């Protein structure tokens, strides 16, 4: 059985973009926990957060993680999926977890170019460069704990995919 592959990391690291390319390279299904949430609620992340608050969004995204988990799938998670211990344990137990890591200035630069406000309401109320610095400081340890493999997300998408494939085959061989 081919275990699911979970992509984790902060906003803008490329989980959704790389996840689609990786799923094609492997012939796996592609799932995204935020897309699943959007489809099942018919609301954007920003709408859910505005009407129900972040705690409710976090509960919904945990459900979404369980709902999309299936063999032979690449699963792009939301950047905050690792905040809950149960989600970190769930991903590690059910599949291979890849952390797409990039420094906060690279992430902020990508998010400034392509903000996608409906997908990414502010987390701290601070300007984006400061927000990403704060978020990485707070979460880096959680991404590290959850991940089986860390991949440099600053490279071009094709190279990121290639490095994920390499880490996975190394993992299989060992
Ligand atoms: N490796 C990369 N190099 C350059 N730009 C990237 C890369 N990965 C993603 N991006 C861009 O960064 C933005 C956020 O990507 P996305 O896949 O939505 O990230 P995430 O799902 O992790 O928040 C998009 O505009 C995307 O085109
Ligand atoms: O970092 C976060 O807490 C979040 C990241 C977003 O997903 P992406 O990482 O795909 O942007 C989305 O789940 C939500 O806005 C919360
Ligand atoms: Mg995404």
Automatic annotation (TrEMBL):
Annotated binding of ATP, by residue: 12-17, 120
Pathway given in the UniProt record: Metabolic intermediate biosynthesis; chorismate biosynthesis; chorismate from D-erythrose 4-phosphate and phosphoenolpyruvate: step 5/7
Stored Pfam families: SKI
Residues holding substrate: 34, 58, 79, 139
Residues binding Mg(2+), per UniProt: 16
SUPFAM superfamilies for the chain: P-loop containing nucleoside triphosphate hydrolases
Subcellular location, principal: cytoplasm
Comment on bound cofactor: Binds 1 Mg(2+) ion per subunit.
GO molecular function annotations of the record: shikimate kinase activity
EC supergroup of this enzyme: transferase
CDD domains: SK
Function: Catalyzes the specific phosphorylation of the 3-hydroxyl group of shikimic acid using ATP as a cosubstrate.
Family listed: Belongs to the shikimate kinase family.
Assembly and oligomerization: Monomer.
Protein name as it appears in the record: Shikimate kinase 1
Gene name of the record: aroL
């Amino acid at each position: 059985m081919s275990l699911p592959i979970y992509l984790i990391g902060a906003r803008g690291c490329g989980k959704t973009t790389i996840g689609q390319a990786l799923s094609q390279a492997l012939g796996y299904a592609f799932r995204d926990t935020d897309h699943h949430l959007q489809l099942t609620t018919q609301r954007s992340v920003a709408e859910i957060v505005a009407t129900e608050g972040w705690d409710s969004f976090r509960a919904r995204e945990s459900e979404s993680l369980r709902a999309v988990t299936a063999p032979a799938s690449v699963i792009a998670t939301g950047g905050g999926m690792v905040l809950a211990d149960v989600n970190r344990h769930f991903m590690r137990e059910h599949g291979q977890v890849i952390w797409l890591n990039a420094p906060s200035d690279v992430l902020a630069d990508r998010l400034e170019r392509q903000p996608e406000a409906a997908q990414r309401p502010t987390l701290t109320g601070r300007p984006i460069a400061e927000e990403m610095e704060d978020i990485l400081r707070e979460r880096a340890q959680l991404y590290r704990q959850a991940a089986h493999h860390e991949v440099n997300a600053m490279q071009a998408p094709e190279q990121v995919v290639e490095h994920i494939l390499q880490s996975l085959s190394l993992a299989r061989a060992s």
